[in-house]
């Protein structure tokens, strides 16, 4: 079987200079390496004839619980639905406020709205890009019942300070750990520091499926049982596999957010190489950092804040802050290098959340990050030559190189 990158271009590409082309994201090679294993799991799915919420899903849940050390790993169709179901299962009531960092993916805030709550925003710490504990504390009102740390890019939020703050204010912690597979805080996997957390298996994530998929992680039996029911039309009963024993009585309105067995098959196979992929990501990040350290347009390289002592970096995204960010991104695109801006608009400035913005002067750290941040290609399939080409091209831009 021949797998090609979706971003690969045909012949006659006007920008094809003979250099390696660097898609922002590609999983083709990593899929190719595990293809025999994926095929074995897929064949089992097809032969059993159960394509949704079946045995392969149960097998993956058990493997994921082993990998993370979670008491419960509940497979769903995306991290966005995982957040909505987790918030509901953790007891979010209509109108409850949830403190969310102003710099994150939209799902951190939209999940709160869709679960019936109200996001209230707080600033990030400018080095780690995660919820700033002091700003989070300042956002708390008598209606606030939850705080949602988001672990972005390569490391976890400052969980000791956030846990203290949550305890002091009587808040429940729900982690948006969608990006954080493999990250641990004092040995505990991301998502297990409060009531629960989520994982995303969107293809571009560190562990990517062949489409959308996600999971809830929790050590709480009751939350696990409720999430498992909510993902399946509100039906309580054995989590997966044996449908004959699942209650047909509906006590709560659920949704259909089940994981497909095809995705579980892919994820089971890829989970086996996750350690290798994470190690390769770390090598690539180190190579970027070494090469870009003295390039003038780069204002900031990824910094692992001192909490490295308690959390291990997992390089999901390699994010720099750059002067003339948008020109740099266009220059790189002209040289056939894909980039992304994470995140282009801070959440309190998103029209969908305008009614929730209580900030007086905005959130300066989140706004600066959204203005300067640029994510460079980082995936386990990148070659050193491709990384070097990205760095050379950034140097050319910095030195006023011709487009
Ligand atoms: C990717 C991501 C999500 C959403 O995950 P999906 O599986 O695409 O729904 C939520 N929050 C953060 C921080 C993410 O990076």
Automatic annotation (TrEMBL):
InterPro entries, per database record: DegT/StrS_aminotransferase, PyrdxlP-dep_Trfase, PyrdxlP-dep_Trfase_major, PyrdxlP-dep_Trfase_small
Keywords assigned by UniProt, alphabetized: Aminotransferase, Pyridoxal phosphate, Transferase
GO molecular function term, any single one: pyridoxal phosphate binding
One Pfam family this sequence matches: DegT_DnrJ_EryC1
Annotated spans, Disordered: 1-21
Comp. bias (Basic and acidic residues): 8-19
Active-site positions on this chain: 205 (proton acceptor)
Residues with PTM N6-(pyridoxal phosphate)lysine: 205
Domain of life: Bacteria
BP GO terms, sorted: polysaccharide biosynthetic process
Family from the record: Belongs to the DegT/DnrJ/EryC1 family.
Name this protein carries in UniProt: DegT/DnrJ/EryC1/StrS family aminotransferase
